[in-house]
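Field log, afternoon session.

UNIT: design team B
ACTIVITY: writing a sequence onto a fixed backbone
BACKBONE:
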């Protein structure tokens, strides 16, 4: 299984519009430091699954027939905004799996075009060609699923954003399931009070310590966390990596 981080940014992205902090200034000068909407591509053999659809150039990145399915974590705009353009295409329908959310986002359900929405249920695995995904409830301001993803070789990876901490059943599932690595929401630098909708670094490190996988990729990163990383010579435990757009993991 191969996972490519196509986007590792929070809703505002890096550089943040109008911000002249050093992280945003650096990202404006050097595209390597940009963070696009949080998205990952998971590939195993011929199977290609897009985790979230916040990139606004999906029609250019993915020619017709190149995606097996799109799997959504939730319906916040930074995770679905790319669908608003894609839906009006012609050709074969694209399956879009999502958590049960009666609202969705704007008129996506009503005017779905070639998107074929399919609702998932928590902890009920779905097989998409040669990948099996188990939806894991997360703690966020909208119905949100992370995913435990396994390929036919038994390789395991989990994708856990957007969330502030983990619900006990999700934590118990992951402790038992033992993914080799996972991607985890880390939107903010350490906060003085407990964050509500996203992990800060303190919460993310606590989750990493509890589940103890070989590698944790921090994603959904906001400019304040990038700024904090620039200003602190923080040494992470060896298994913690701050993901960048374009990073590839062979699981
Ligand atoms: Zn988000
Ligand atoms: Zn900034
Ligand atoms: Zn969100």
């Amino acid at each position: 299984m191969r996972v490519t981080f196509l986007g590792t940014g929070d809703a505002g992205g890096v550089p943040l519009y109008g911000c002249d902090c050093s992280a945003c200034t650096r990202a404006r000068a050097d595209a390597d430091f940009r963070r696009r909407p949080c998205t990952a591509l998971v590939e195993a053999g011929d199977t290609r699954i897009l985790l979230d659809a916040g990139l606004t150039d999906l029609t250019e990145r993915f020619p017709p027939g190149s995606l097996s399915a799109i799997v959504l974590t939730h319906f916040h705009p930074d995770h679905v905004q790319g669908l608003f353009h894609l839906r009006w295409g012609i050709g074969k329908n694209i399956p879009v799996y999502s958590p049960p959310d009666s609202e969705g986002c704007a008129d996506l359900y009503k005017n779905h075009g070639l998107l074929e929405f399919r609702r998932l249920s928590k902890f009920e695995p779905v097989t998409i060609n040669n990948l099996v995904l188990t939806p894991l409830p997360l703690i966020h301001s909208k119905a949100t699923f992370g995913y435990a993803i396994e390929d036919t070789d038994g390789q395991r990876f989990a994708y856990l954003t957007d969330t502030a901490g983990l619900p006990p059943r999700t934590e118990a599932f992951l402790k038992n399931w033992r993914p080799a690595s996972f991607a985890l929401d880390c939107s903010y630098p350490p906060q003085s009070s407990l964050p509500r909708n996203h992990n800060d670094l303190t919460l993310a490190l606590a989750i990493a310590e509890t589940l103890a996988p070989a590698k944790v990729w921090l994603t959904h990163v906001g400019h304040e966390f990038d700024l904090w990383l620039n200003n602190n010579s923080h040494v992470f435990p060896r298994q913690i990596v701050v993901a960048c757009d374009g990073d590839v993991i062979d699981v």
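LOG NOTE: The two ends are 5 Å apart (CA to CA).
NEXT ACTIVITY: expression trials, pending approval
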